[in-house]
Amino acid sequence: MPKMKIQNKETVTSSCKILMSATAFKSSTKVGMTLGGKSRSNEKLLKFIDKKLTYINNIQTKSPNATLGADAILVLAELYYALDRWLVLAGRKDSSVNTRRSKGVEGLFAQVVKLLSFQLETPINRLPNWLEEKFTVGMTDHGYEVDYQNSSALYYNEQSRNVCRLKITNGVVYQKQWWKPTNNDVWVKMNSEDTQKTGSAGTISAQHCGYVLSVLGDFYSGPHKSGTTHAKDGQYHSSYMGGRPVLCAGEIKIVDGKISHLNTSSGHYGPAKGYLLNVINALTLCGVDESSYNVSYHGSTSAYTAATMRKKIEETDKKVGGGDVNHLKSKKSWQYKNGVQAKIEKQIKELSKELDVITHFKTPGKHIEGFGSSYSKRAQCPICSSAQLHNKLQQTRYASRNVKEREARLLKLLKIADKIK
After folding, report:
1. Distance CA 265, CA 210 (A)
2. Percent of the chain topping pLDDT 90
3. pLDDT tens per residue, range 168-222
4. pTM here?
5. Best CA proximity match to 361, nearest among 375, 379, 376, 377
6. N or C: which end of the chain has fewer CB within 10 A?
7. How far apart are CA 163 and CA 53, in angstroms?
8. What is the rounded average pLDDT of the residues 229-243?
């Protein structure tokens, strides 16, 4: 969320139950003189915002004080993301928006934030978390294992991430020349096959490269590379945003700046097909014709134009009912966190028990010497007995285990578990 004068941590109760009208918003974002001849009607993102705002206006006109249903909440959330995106572009002085309209956009954004807070009974400072939970896709078990347990993923910082950020102007995709030691800030038309040439063979479909769509609406792409040394040198879908949730991820085919195909094939995120709507919307707002490229979802052999896929998703995955606001999350969406979290918690429990056994030998009064009769030969010490240490040799070897090394491993696992939660 951009830094704005909305700092209270309490849930909004009555300060904004009704959004401004679409007409009022158009008036607040109209400027006398445009820059570079760009009129308001040429800003695709504003037209998208107008459409979503009109939808909410129609509902609130009929019933001003009513609690919004699931469908309306979803549209309101889409409005939130669109306004957020506009403000991000304005902050970058992007030519696709006129920054002189910022005051009007900020005004509507503040109202949307307050209305969402009121409708969801969620404190304003918790809204980003709610939206992230409902609209984004997090890493799969595979992603967590590769990135955290194997420590084989390279995570980009802001500077290196920006080198991989794509720019889409009038439907044409441009990338910076990150592969050059100098002049790597020059924008050139993108070719996905060339991008993946410096990556690992077999990790991405032929003529494609990997992509992610961030929560802020930015596309990132670079070579997909397997980490072979477990020294955090692998480049995966998770690399761009540091393992954080995204709006979508997969593979994309681009020839001379023109997109011909994209999908949701990502082992690290495994997005359900419904997340393709996020990609289609983002590309449409950048001037990419929905009939000019095909899309498919992971596990499917069929590809459709983006326009056809939009209809299919809206007729199935995007249907909501009974107050369900899970938006694009299909019932078949890959489950993440729970599986790997259980594995890590099991390792923590086993390692903690091992440390307890090792240290008990060195703690006065804890270890009981001696064994049973010659018939049983079982340890008299209950801790040793529980650990199946039934002779002196077993106990001596166990007591000599490296405590510091195991404490370091335990600390690492605890940090991973905390991050997953």
Report:
1. 9
2. 50
3. 998 999 999 988 888 778 899 999 999 999 899 889 999 999 999 999 999 999 9
4. 0.74
5. 379
6. C
7. 34
8. 87
